[in-house]
Amino acid sequence: MKKNMRTRDSVGYLYLLPWIIGFLTFQLYPLISSLYYSFTSFNITSSPRFIGWDNYVTMFTSDPLFWTALGNTVQYVMMSIPMKIGFALFVAMLLNQKIRGINLYRTLYYIPSIFGGSVAVSILWRFLFMSGGMVNRLLNTIGIASIPWLSSPNWSLFTLSLLSVWQFGSSMVLFLASLKQVPEDLYEAALIDGAGRIRTFFAITLPMITPVLFFNILMQIINAFQDFTGAFVITNGGPLNSTYLFALKLYDEAFTYFKMGYASALSWILFIFIIGFTAIFFRFSNAVTFYGDGEA
After folding, report:
1. 108-158, pLDDT tens digit by residue?
2. Which is nearest to 48 in space by CA: 34, 60, 58?
3. Contact present, 123 and 117 (Cβ < 8 Å)
4. What does residue 259 show for φ and ψ, rounded to 5 degrees?
5. For strand 40-41 and strand 49-50, is the pairing parallel, antiparallel, or unpaired?
6. Which of 109, 120, 129, 173 could disulfide-pair with 149, CB 3.0 to 4.6 Å?
7. Which long-range contacts (CB under 8 A, 24 or more apart) does 255-259 make?
8. Which residues pair with 50 in a beta bridge?
9. Residue 212: how many CA atoms within 13 Å on its side-chain side?
10. Beta-strand runs (E) in the chain
11. At what angle do helices 260-285 and 210-225 cross, to 10 degrees?
């Protein structure tokens, strides 16, 4: 009996071996290495030289682009997440209707998320919003002057946020699944009481989907702090560093200036920032999140 159990355990570990090797090689080792490199002066061509906290001191005291990138990233998150989550919930409610061909519509609305973060779509976005692009041409046809979507610091970060909103599919699918779990008898009771659609949404729908709403907001915020492709391909941080996001700053330090030690320090600051924000978010989520057992 014990021999059979050992054999079964050995087979299980054998199946887990590829994942364990991948985790140790591509996750744990890079994590520990980057922590070490963050305390060194390392430019790939020479051996790392231990310099203590110098990278972190430089970051906070004598690198103005650090604060620019951090400020831009926070603004980007604050602009893109409400629009993205709101639009995903709106589309999910539309796709929750019982109409003919609804599965086809759901598939079509999810497709943008498959290609949304690609370089090709970012290039397309740049052509759409350039000075003579399709968006401005459409505005001109209805008598509205062209808007400097990508050439003005006042508009560039907002334009970049719109690309993030377009990638709403994953959040929409989760919202759609949660909407289907709302008991129908609650809606029937609201209808009998004479509640309108807006009142029903805020009194029944929104409270019942708060766990999924919380999860979507948290995951999208974590992803937004790490967004890179759009800022790199569409604006490359311009104009006047108005779209210079933190991930782009990290990339420049590592692969443009080859300051791997400094880039490692930046990555750890971003990691700590995200972990701290996540902890605070979890701390206050209990007050607004409703679960099926009636507990918040």
Report:
1. 777 767 665 578 888 888 999 998 899 999 999 999 999 999 999 999 999
2. 34
3. no
4. -95, 75
5. antiparallel
6. 129
7. 258/43, 258/44, 258/45, 259/42, 259/43
8. 40
9. 23
10. 40-41, 49-50
11. 170
